[in-house]
Specification:
heterodimer, A: alpha+beta, Alpha-Beta Plaits, 2 domains, four-stranded antiparallel sheet, elongated, B: alpha/beta, Rossmann fold, six-stranded mixed sheet, 9 helices, about 35% helix, globular, Cell division ATP-binding protein FtsE (chain B), cell membrane (chain B), ATP binding (chain B), ABC_transporter-like_ATP-bd (chain B), cell cycle (chain B)
């Protein structure tokens, strides 16, 4: 009885100010889509980092002949220098480095000829054009700086290179995009709160007669306010569901079906990730509605 | 039932108090008129009883509750024991008569079967049997007020507050409403009615509490409205302006004659018939359960069947038939 009555009231309220309800749905839809997009971008960054950081190494390039670097003034790195470096890596960097691999000029040339059997851009190179290097696999790829501090500037070391740097611009771009999305989401969420507040207020004012009588005949506070709360919550929930649906479609068609086909060596977010963030979006929507209705209703329908 | 102990109410700081040290005691089953000029504090009195306002001084006790100590979540339960009727009826325009009355029960969570039985009962009592499906704008003012009374009384409150219930109605229709309120009072319900209508007060001869600028200036049993203050002494010669027919009895002022709507008369007749039936029924058949003091043994003087016109006889016959069918269904 009570439930049915409340639901009838809710339906009537939704019908009565339909245009406001629609605008609430749309605003929550757009704002939560931005929230979801920010979350998905973050997921994407984490995925890429997890994937690629397993592969990246720190390369310690040793002095080749004719290098202009100040540490290479004595010419090509001697075997003694190489041994000394290996010693340092094994002792001072034992905690940081998981794996050490020494690539001699010969190894480097071999790898080069395998990759470019016809020469690089039309030039045939010889073994002497190659450069010997240590390839260090780090326990934690983020600890590149430690390796750099220890090895940079030692005799025989031309330059220490972190392969991660190659990815940095990409991650930076993704990070900024997700920040931007989060910022927009913030603004839109504010708009959503204000709009839901206005909608509930309108609804409360247009039903002042009813609520006045309800209060007079002794309806409980909850009973008077519940229909309004439900109205806000339903509108916000529909917006959230639309946002989840929109993100699902975007991921399915833009990422899974299109991006993954054209650039297939990258791990992408998939619809599973959308489902993971769906509870977050719905939670935010319900929270929005509850907060705005509690604030509004205490002012407009107090007993 | 309602006790005011040195109650004061000041709305805005520094303003003249709306009520100033008012002490009134209304016992169970009483009928009290609250009279006084506009702004004398009648509405504030009623609002304090409903705890729409809280007194700035003194204590208010209603139905055994100390309202100054009543926490706000218990206010709904207080209001369930009070029915309220207003001058402007306050019906819901998009709901039918039946829905309007049922609304009061729905919103306090009464089960559906209770609503199905009590609403027709109370509608019959106020004389609106057969008009359940009408919308408020399809009814006359008197009938609308009857719906409002039905809504206020459907939960069988211990107290009925009426804030100028006849203020919008013509004298004859007002009389019908007063009979109805009197009938409700006889079921043991305490009735407090704020009014300006001197004719009604004089005719009913009930207890009168007169307020003037927030203080009780008179509290008499079996009283009359009292003399109007001559606020415009210079216009006293033309009493039409202030109080037609009063103060200058020598001057015969033709009063506007209003003949009530036939529908209102019919409603009144139906209500009286219902009351007569209720009075003649054994008390066991009374369905009003809670806090009903025994019906006065004497049937209402106004209740006997209106004799005369054959239309009345037909109405009575139909009603009696109706009753028989209903009794048969219940058996």
């Amino acid at each position: 009885m009570r439930l049915q009555f409340v639901l009838t009231e809710v339906l009537q309220g939704l019908r009565r100010n339909l245009s406001m309800v629609v605008s609430v749905v749309l605003v929550t839809f757009v704002s939560l889509t931005f929230v979801g997009a920010a979350a998905l971008l973050q997921t994407q960054v984490t995925k890429l980092k997890g994937d690629w950081y397993d592969l990246v190494e720190v390369s310690v390039f040793l002095c080749p002949t004719g290098s202009t670097a100040p540490t290479c003034a004595d010419g090509e790195a001697t075997p003694e220098q190489v041994d000394a470096l290996e010693q340092v890596i094994d002792t001072e960097l034992a905690d940081v480095v998981a794996n050490t691999y020494f690539e001699s000029k010969g190894d480097a040339f071999e790898a080069f000829t395998q990759m470019y059997p016809d020469g690089y851009q039309g030039t045939q190179l010889t073994e002497d054009d190659m450069q010997a290097s240590f390839r260090l696999k780090l326990v934690d790829p983020e600890q590149y700086q430690v390796v750099d501090d220890v090895l940079e500037g030692r005799a025989g070391v031309e330059v220490v290179e972190d392969q991660r740097e190659v990815f940095e611009p990409l991650f930076l771009a993704l990070g900024r995009a997700s920040l931007l999305a989060a910022g927009l989401a913030g603004v839109m969420l504010l708009a959503a709160v204000l709009l839901i507040t206005t909608t509930i207020r309108l609804s409360a004012v247009s039903r002042r007669r009813e609520t006045g009588i309800m209060r007079l005949v002794g309806a409980s506070n909850l009973f008077v306010q519940l229909p309004f709360m439900l109205e806000g919550a339903i509108a916000a929930l529909v917006g959230a569901l639309l946002a989840v649906g929109g993100l699902w479609l975007a991921v399915q068609y833009l990422v899974t079906d299109w991006l993954q086909d054209s650039v297939d060596w990258v791990a992408y977010v998939d619809v599973g990730d959308v489902l993971l963030i769906a509870p977050l979006l719905i939670g935010i929507a319900v929270l929005l509605a509850v907060v705005s209705s509690v604030v509004t209703l205490n002012r407009y329908t107090r007993v | 039932m309602i006790r005011f102990e040195n109650v004061s109410k000041v709305y805005a700081r520094g303003a003249r108090p709306a009520l100033d040290d008012v002490s009134v005691d209304v016992s169970r089953g009483e009928f009290v008129f609250l009279v006084g000029a506009s702004g004398s504090g009648k509405s504030t009195f009623l609002r304090l009883v409903l705890r729409e306002e809280r007194p700035t001084g003194g204590s208010v006790y209603v139905a055994g509750r100390d309202l100054s100590r009543l926490s706000s979540w218990k206010v709904p339960s207080l209001r369930r024991s009070i029915g309220v009727v207003f001058q402007d009826f306050r019906l819901l325009p998009n709901k039918t008569v039946h829905e309007n009355v049922a609304f009061a029960l729905q919103v306090i969570g009464k089960p559906r079967h209770t609503i199905r039985t009590t609403v027709p009962e109370v509608l019959e009592m106020v004389g609106l049997d057969g008009k359940e499906k009408r919308l408020p704008h399809e009814l006359s003012g008197g009938e609308q007020q009857r719906v409002a009374i039905a809504r206020a009384f459907v939960n069988r409150p211990q107290i009925l507050l009426a804030d100028e219930p006849t203020g919008n109605l013509d004298p004859t229709t007002s009389l019908g409403i007063m009979r109805l309120l009197d009938r409700i009072n006889r079921t043991g319900t305490t009735v407090v009615m704020a009014t300006h209508d001197d004719e009604i007060v004089n005719e009913m001869r009930k207890r009168v509490v007169e307020l003037s600028t927030g203080s009780v200036v008179r509290d008499e049993v079996d009283a009359v409205y009292g003399e109007r203050e001559s606020i415009l002494p210079l216009v006293g010669q033309t009493p039409v302006l202030d109080a037609p027919g009063r103060g200058a009895r020598a001057v015969v002022v033709p009063r506007v004659q209003v003949s009530p709507e036939p529908a209102d008369l019919e409603a009144e007749r139906a209500a009286e018939a219902a009351a007569a039936r209720a009075a003649s029924q054994p008390p066991a058949a009374q369905t009003t359960t809670e806090q009903v003091t025994p019906e006065p043994a004497v049937p209402e003087p106004a209740a006997p069947e209106p004799a005369g016109s054959s239309a009345d006889d037909v109405v009575q016959q139909v009603l009696r038939e109706h009753e028989r069918v209903r009794a048969g269904r219940e058996a």
